[in-house]
Each structure stands twice: as C-alpha cells, then as structure tokens.
Prior knowledge:
six-stranded parallel sheet, 2 domains, alpha/beta, 24% helix, Rossmann fold, Quinone Oxidoreductase, Chain A, domain 1, seven-stranded mixed sheet, 379 residues, 16 strands
Amino acid sequence: MSDKVEAAVLVDTRKVEIQQFDLPSPARDALLLKTEVCGVCGTDIHLFEGRMKIPLPVILGHEFSGEVAEIGEEAKTAEATGQRIEKGDRITVVPGSNKFCGKCYYCKFVPSRPNLCTSRRAYGITISCRDPPHLFGGWSEYIYVDPVHFFTFKLPSDFPKEFGALIEPAAVATRALERAVAPGITFGNEGFGLGKSVVVQGVGPIGLLVTAAARAAGAGEIIAIDSIESRLKMSERLGADITIDMLQLSKSEDRISEVRRLTQGVGADVAVECTGVPAAFQEGVEMVRDGGKYVEVGHYTDTGPIEIRPHRICRKDLDILGSWAYPPIQFRTAISFLNREKDRFKFGDLITHRFSVSEATRIFEAVKTRQAVKTAVVP
C-alpha cells in the first residue's frame, strides 16, 4: 500500500486538480476504505459549475463503495444493521451524516425526516479536504469513513462491484417513488400502487432507476419521456412499456395529449419529474390525472422559475410532492432492490463510461456530450 493517495479535488468553479494526500491511519472509531467505484452524479456537475455554495476545496464524489483496508476496533461494531465489519469486507456509506444536530426545528419536531436537518453534512459535497485526514470524497483511491456519524452498510457477498455506484441514486429513486405511496390510499385509487400508471420525465440514471423500481413494485403502464434515443431504449430494458421521444413530439401540448391518449384520456396516476428542467414541471402537472400525484425530484439545484397557474393544481385536486434526498436507512431499500432485481434488470449496463482518478478532469467534458447514461470513477 502506497503512503500517498491520489484524489480529484474541486478547487474552484470549473477547476479540478489531481492532488496527492498522505494515507491516514484510521482512529479507533473509523475505517479506511479502498474505493472500488464512485458514480458521477448530476450534483457533481452542479458543484463543478458553481451552482452550490460549498467549502472548497472538496474531493468530489458521494456515490461510492469499496473494500475495508484498515479499521479501528470500535468501528467494527458500527455497521448500520448490526453486522460486524472486518478488514476486507465490502461496504457502502450513506454520504449524508446520520448524527443530526438535535437542535434545529426539524430534528426536534420532524424527526421522521432527518434529511431536513439544517446541519447535515455530506461526503463529496459539504466536507472540505483542506484539513487531515482529507479523504472525504469518492473520487479518490481511498476514503476516510466515520461509521459512527455516517450510516455504513455491509454489502451482500454476491453484490456486483459496479453496483456500488448505483446505491445512492437508487436510494434517491426509490424514495421518490415512495413519496407517491406514503400519502396515498391505493385501494381508494390514490397514490402509487399495483397497476397504477406512471410517467417518468427524463430517463437519466435517476429516471431509469425510478422506472425499474416502479416496474419491480408492480406498476401498470410506465411511460418514459426523454430526447436521447439510447436512454429511451435503456428505459425499455428497465421496465418502460412506452417511450415518448421529445425530438419526435417536440411540442409540449403534443406530449401531454399523447400521455392522456395512452391513459384512457385522463392522465397518469403518478408522474415523477427527473429532468431538472423547469419547463418539465409545468408540463408534468398536465400529464397527471385529476387527483393524481406529481413527484418533483429533479431539481436539486435552482435552475430558474416557470409560470404556474395555481388554479390548475386546485382544479385537478393534485398532490405535488417534493423529494429531497432520503433518510439514511433508504440505503437498505436500495441495496435490497438492486441485488434482488439484478437478474431481471441489467443494472450494470447503466454505467457506460469509466474513468480512473487521474482521468477525472475529463469527466465533465464527457458528461456534456450527453451520450453517457452513467459515468463512474474506478480507481
């Protein structure tokens, strides 16, 4: 094991440098993870473009898993589900902290939504690499993990290595779909449930995983919408029954009419917005039937306003549900979903582009071409 670690560091807006850090030894309550894979998220692109205020410099990457290289004695019993962790085990880490402040309004009065804590910290986003032990991001050969403050999950022995880049986005996707379940009464024809029609707007990685999750959960007709042919084809392999190509139906009103035509003239029971394009929200509201549910998960950053007619929301008796990240335990759902459905859905096919840490500065240009479905850093 070398005493130096290579990592991709965001040092300023649109500026990433490959830097070396000393390889730390973990404290008694920590472990050192040898990175196997880390996904590239849309959030990484937003950070690169300067759309979020973060404590630079930061090692990017929050969708990671790897093998335990060294572990402190106290960390061996800190796995989220009570399993023992030893050197050589493969694990993943929820990037958002599970030790919440306990002082803010949400910790005190909305404990069921720990994702809303105002002091939440996240690997690869809000933890700077300026101070030792530095390694708090997944675009690195090693990651310093504090399993006491960050949920750590031991991976099943048959869990494919490349799926480690999909656990975090699968947590986002499954939680978004569950947002349409939680407030519903499925036997009363409310909310997501068996046989319910679903529209997925945008089938990038999150939209594709929403599609697969909906199919695995017993959805009825699933309609995927995108402008990239390769992603639409991928959505069919992951459970979409019908695809709408925005290049062929270029007008919003035509896409809305097509969704209604495909859903007995009323609209879908549930729609999930995964594009991050404001106009998609305006369009999606009209794709959902009266009394349906609309889930907004695509706008992690503020990409601007659109015109909304409140009367339409009122008249349609519509439930609009935001989905911001997930509670830490959502990783258990994501791991189970990916592993149980791995033979049915070839999730590994989502990862179409791979880069080493030393090549990480090329990632952003590759993503701009929009040809990649999912990009990953593989040290």
